[in-house]
């Protein structure tokens, strides 16, 4: 138990996630077995609670297994979830899961990923950057169908996209697998479990400021699409949405380029949404020589969270929320900027961490 407690400390847990996960699973089995034999040898009445604990744990594992099978396996087409990996600049991997079932998740959700070829005994959590579901009924004739059997109904298909930064362990293995493949693309099979999270609703805020650093953009991007869609359908209060993304090199823009194109094509994008990119390793002259899309405001410095918050307060519409997802130091700077102004206006703060 002492070893498990030491290994659960946040810095150690983040640095050795796979070891943390597997040690805790083994530890649970050892602890339950030890308690069981201790109580059984002395015929103590508390043995019933061990049976209950084991039963509940077994039920939880069984239900999760059934849910994973249901979500990832298509009995009709005899197909399993496929994963496409693409290596991108900045040591990032674009992972796209193709499921054969419809899949809905709130913005800010995450999934657990199972990839036996890369990490046989563990799953890893990743934020969902983008998801799309397709599948509908078709009928070739101009006449109305006589029954549902006359319809050509396509099975719903869903794609889930994650952006994974190469660190150590599984994330490094994924990037090396994709980067060494032909055309930096590789396909393999896997499974997803979820969605989890996505508990924060920003629907009641007129002004929304989303800060992201590095792969923290995966958490914030889904909020932009959700809020803009709600604005267009008059179901949310958002009138002013600002996304601030801090990256080290300009090549990181390739991480989200396809999704940016979809966002900019949405109705009322330019009237409601602003996207500001801060590139810390570029000079102003280098940015001026770039061909930057007019939908992006690219700046050649790290950026000051206090300046951003103060600017948005001056044009605030309704209640305001500031959300941040990034490294600890980045999150602390944004939190401090909000704290200094929270007494002036109606401002809420939401922080999302990279990992458990």
What does this entry show, briefly?
With 356 residues, the chain is of the alpha/beta class. Helices cover 36% and strands 29% of the residues. The strands form five sheets. A six-stranded parallel beta sheet has the order 16-15-14-13-17-18, sandwiched between helices.
Describe this structure in words.
With 356 residues, this protein is α/β, with parallel strands linked by helices. The protein folds into 3 domains: 2-73; 79-137 and 152-197, Translation factors (Elongation Factor Tu (Ef-tu), domain 3, Beta Barrel), CATH 2.40.30.10; 207-352, Nucleotide-binding domain of ferredoxin-NADP reductase (FNR) module (Rossmann fold), CATH 3.40.50.80. The chain contains 11 helices and 18 strands. A 6-stranded parallel beta sheet has the order 16-15-14-13-17-18, sandwiched between helices. The longest helix is centred in the first third of the chain and has 26 residues, at 47-72. The radius of gyration is 24 Å and the shape is globular. The model is unreliable at 136-141 (pLDDT under 50). InterPro entries: FAD-bd_8 (IPR013112), FAD-bd_FR_type (IPR017927), Fe_red_NAD-bd_6 (IPR013121), Ferric/Cupric_Reductase (IPR051410), FNR_nucleotide-bd (IPR039261). Residues 75-202 form the FAD-binding FR-type domain. This is FAD-binding FR-type domain-containing protein. Pfam families: FAD_binding_8 (PF08022), NAD_binding_6 (PF08030).
